[in-house]
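TA notes, week 10

Several of you asked for a full example with nothing omitted. So below is the full record: structure tokens for the whole chain, then the designed sequence directly under it. When grading your own attempts, check the secondary structure regions first.
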């Protein structure tokens, strides 16, 4: 578990990265390999969300990459404009290592990775706040992967939890 102070450092690193001024602090937790997502919102509306679901990079590097990706590389949005940089709210989610699970074991509050053929998609646990019905949650996850609505019933899954820090 990271402390609230650690979370503030993560949020600062994400914001500094968006402003192209990132310098990864020397704190030991920034060197641990962790999965991470950075979510950007403006007035409560999604403006970008990119991450690395698996622990393949040191946390500091992963936060920089995810923040830059959310701001400038999310294919659902145009790159963040200069004026938007001051309007965004940032959330950094630190993931536990995803583990194999079954459709039946998925429950409200789980982060979920769906895999079907060559398609993958991921919802952070926070998505349950908007899609609290399991069938709707999984149908939307299936469609996010470019699949048919009910293909989720034939998919394989991994689940994870997060520790999230919000501005």
């Amino acid at each position: 578990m990271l402390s609230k102070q650690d979370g503030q450092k993560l949020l600062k690193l994400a914001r500094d990265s968006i402003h192209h001024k990132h310098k990864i602090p020397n704190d030991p937790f920034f060197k641990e390999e962790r999965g991470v997502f950075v979510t950007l919102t403006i007035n409560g509306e999604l403006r970008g969300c990119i991450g690395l679901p698996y622990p393949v990079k040191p946390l500091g590097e992963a936060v920089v990459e995810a923040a830059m990706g959310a701001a400038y590389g999310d294919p659902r949005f145009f790159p963040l404009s200069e004026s938007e940089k001051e309007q965004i709210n940032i959330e950094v989610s630190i993931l536990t290592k995803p583990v194999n699970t079954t459709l039946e074991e998925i429950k409200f509050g789980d982060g979920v990775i769906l895999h079907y053929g060559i398609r993958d998609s991921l919802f952070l646990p926070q998505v349950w706040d908007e899609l609290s019905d399991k069938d709707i949650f999984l149908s939307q996850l299936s469609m996010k992967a470019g699949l048919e609505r009910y293909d989720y019933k034939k998919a394989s899954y991994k689940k994870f939890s997060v520790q999230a820090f919000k501005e």
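The longest helix spans residues 4-18. Use that as a sanity check on your answer.
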